[in-house]
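During the no-cost extension, the postdoctoral fellow (Dr. R.K.) reprocessed legacy sequence entries with the updated structure-token encoder. One reprocessed record is reproduced below for audit purposes.
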Amino acid sequence: MSKFKEFYMKKIILFLFIFSTFSYTRTVNGILLKDKIKVHNQKLFLNGAGTRNKFFIDIYVGSLYVVTPTNDPASIINSNTIKSMHLHIVTSWINRKLLKSALRAELRSSSTGEEMDELQEEIDTFLSTFNEEIIRGDKFIFNIIPGAGVEVYKNNRLIKSIEGDQFSKRLIQLWIGDTPVDRKLKAGILGN
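Re-encoded structure tokens follow.
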């Protein structure tokens, strides 16, 4: 191969490498998100992402990974497949007490009294995963595993496993259900 061809081949390979690296990531509010991840050997794809905002303050970037991306919330909620919800804390304004309180209120406002009573033990266990201090840059992952429940990770460390498909469904509805925590965030997570 001539030096001329070799030079251009190297340029093309470098271009393809750079292009492929960028095509597999997306940035939301300064947070770099992967287009695909693996959970329990299941490949999941980024369905969408957005920022949770409260009182004009960006709290966290939420992103959802699913087996088959869709903008239909009911099909995601009711699918019997692995899902992974990620929260990247983007403010130093939030702390564990505020986040726990907000999640408890959001679970209450998006659930019936009967659902809250039925799932009280699972909700308490879930909220106890926020007992450690929370700082900007922390990342929470909620892996929803059908037939098993929810695995809660903080900064890639497993904190708790919460059994039950009913709680799993209730949890994902926080972000994409009929009464989501933030309608703009829901739209972003659904890829709209």
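Strands lie at 25-28, 31-34, 36-39, 42-54, 57-66, 83-89, 139-145, 149-154, 157-163. The longest helix spans residues 3-23. The remaining legacy entries will be reprocessed before the final report is submitted.
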